[in-house]
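pinging the channel bc i need a second pair of eyes. not urgent but kinda urgent?? the chain im working w is below, pasted from the shared doc
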Amino acid sequence: ASVFMIVGFCHLIDVALACDILRTGAIVAYTLNEAGSVLENIDRLGYGYLIPDQIRSRLAQIKEERRK
């Protein structure tokens, strides 16, 4: 529910400013975050060989940065 509220709030700001940047940016950010979670879960299930090495290494970097 909070995702919809944030996107809705960004939409209200975009309407006030007559643009579509914030709403689109919020949607893209949430989409990329969820895609990363899906890829992590695929790796945890043992199907990591289906994920290209470049993406797996970048996910490992992001995971390491979160731990700091």
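so Residues 21-47 form the longest helix (27 residues). and The CA atoms of residues 1 and 12 lie 17 Å apart. — does that match what u expected or am i reading it wrong
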